[in-house]
């Protein structure tokens, strides 16, 4: 079976993308598809490298019965060469990723907004960092809808 690889990207890799990564990993595990997918998340920037996700992101995931041990990392040239899909959270991420991918000789990743898979057509997953618990919950719900639809399409 082909090995599908997915990376989820946000600006700092401490709020949105770790939530999306944990949600997708749980969906894949629940569907017994973990042998088919390698899921990771990364940041466009290097601000938070090595940090654990925001405590509110961890709290939101825990509330939904999901644990993660992810530590923030910055996206690498190899990510563009190995991942089949790189899904990001907003237009600024998309611009940055497209710019970075243009500098990679053999980029194989399809780069797109995770929100393009949302059945509710919420294209942008807003950064909840300056918000409250409710904003993290909104991110979780969006990620869940998008990841389910993405998995259905590529499974």
Description:
The chain has a single domain, classed as 3-Layer(aba) Sandwich (Rossmann fold). α1 links the parallel β1 and β2. Helices cover 41% and strands 14% of the residues. The model has no long low-confidence stretch (mean pLDDT 95). It has 5 helices and 4 strands; from the N terminus they run βαβααβαβα. The radius of gyration is 14 Å and the shape is globular. It has 155 residues and is α/β, with parallel strands linked by helices. The protein has a 4-stranded parallel β-sheet, sandwiched between helices. α2 packs across α5.
Keywords for this structure?
41% helix; 155 residues; Rossmann fold; 4-stranded parallel beta sheet; alpha/beta; 5 helices; globular
Give a quick rundown of the structure.
This protein is 41% helix and 14% strand.
